[in-house]
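Can't paste images in this forum, so I'm doing it all in text. The chain is below; anyone willing to post the predicted C-alpha cells underneath?
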Amino acid sequence: MTPPLRELTDSHPRVGRIASIWLRVERAGALRQVPQALATPGQGLAGDRYGQRERSPGANHKREITLFQAEHLATLAAWTGHDKIDPALLRRNLVVSGINLLALRSPFADARCVWHIGDEVLIDVTDPCDPCSRMEAALGAGGYNAMRGLGGLTARILRGGLIRVGDTLRPGPLLSEVLNPASASDKANG
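Text version of the structure:
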C-alpha cells in the first residue's frame, strides 16, 4: 500500500549541505563569499544588507535569508548559454546542495516543518524567492525567464547561531511545535 501524502512529504533521501555563503553589503553591490555567517532571528545574516536593517517587532520577517539550489546552476548555465554560472550573480545567501529545496515547503499549511542548519540554526521556509529584473543583466537576454521557478526560497530565522560552509540542512520539528512548545508537549503526554 502506498503511504499517505503527508508521510511522503516527511521523507527525504539525503540531507542537504551548505555549499557556499554569500553576503550583500549594499543594495546593488557585489556579493562577498564568506566561510561562515552569524544568523540572527528578526534580522538575517550579520554583514548582509538585510541583516543590517532596523526592523520593528511587528515587521514582516519572511525574507531574512535566501537559499538557492546548487544543482540548478548547471541548468541555468545551459539555458542562458554560459559554461557555468557564478552563484554571486544570483544574489542569494546560501547555496545548498544534495536536497530538493522545493521539498522544504510542506504542501500542508498545518504541517510546516522547521529546518536545522548545522547544530545551531533553525529556519522556517516562507516563500519562493522569485527572480528580480537584475537577472536579465547578470545572465543575459532571457536571464529573468530562465530563473523563473528556479529562484530558490526565502526563510525566516527562528533560532540563531553560526552557519558554516559544509553544515547540513536537515528536517526538524513542525513549526507549530517550535512556536507553541506547550501544546506539543500536551499532545505527546496524551
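The chain has one domain: 11-168. The chain is about 20% helix and 30% strand.
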